[in-house]
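From the methods appendix. Each design record in this collection lists the tokenized structure first, followed by the designed amino acid sequence. Records were kept in a plain field format so they could be parsed without special tools. The example shown here is representative of the layout used throughout.

RECORD:
FOLD TOKENS (156 positions):
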């Protein structure tokens, strides 16, 4: 089983969240948080901070804290995506389009779940109210969740 360690970062400013429209690659055409691969020799926290800067232009201030741990598997495929979800403690700058992502602020009530990965509608509500979570989602292709588990946790 091939495993990939990836990050996502919640950039939340009051009642609005910064999301990015993925212009190419995996998840192209979907809105998502900013994130990417954890490179060799990198901590996941640093990788999350790096990806926010690369993909949105924002500087993370005060580091990130882990809020979620998600595992994704795909029916009939032998790879597992382990996505660590962080929240930025603070940030500065103006969001700027990158090669990968077109950033946009969304009010929480307007988050475009129909144009996002199907798992998001399960764990975003916990993340947006400051909760911590662990989840496993087993997909058939990219649009159908065959089964999943999701629990709120006290700490990592
Ligand atoms: C570098 N990216 C970061 C985000 N990521 C995913 C995946 C995902 N579901 C999995 C079925 C695909 N759901 C969200 N929200 N993000 C994949 C890799």
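DESIGN:
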């Amino acid at each position: 089983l091939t495993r990939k360690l990836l990050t996502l970062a919640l950039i939340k400013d009051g009642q609005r969240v910064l999301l990015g429209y993925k212009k190419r690659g995996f998840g192209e055409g979907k809105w998502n948080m900013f994130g990417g691969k954890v490179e060799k020799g990198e901590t996941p926290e640093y990788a999350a901070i790096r990806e926010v800067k690369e993909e949105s232009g924002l500087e993370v201030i005060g580091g990130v804290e882990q809020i979620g741990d998600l595992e994704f598997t795909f029916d009939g495929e032998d790879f597992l995506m382990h996505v660590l979800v962080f929240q930025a403690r603070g940030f500065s700058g103006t969001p700027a389009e990158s090669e990968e992502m077109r950033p946009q602020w969304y009010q929480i009530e307007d988050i475009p779940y129909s144009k996002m990965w199907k798992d998001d509608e399960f764990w975003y509500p916990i993340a947006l109210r400051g909760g911590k979570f662990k989840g496993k989602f087993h997909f058939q292709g990219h649009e159908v969740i065959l089964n999943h588990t999701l629990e709120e946790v006290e700490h990592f």
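APPENDIX NOTE: The beta strands are 2-10, 12-13, 16-22, 31-32, 59-74, 79-92, 101-107, 132-140, 144-153.
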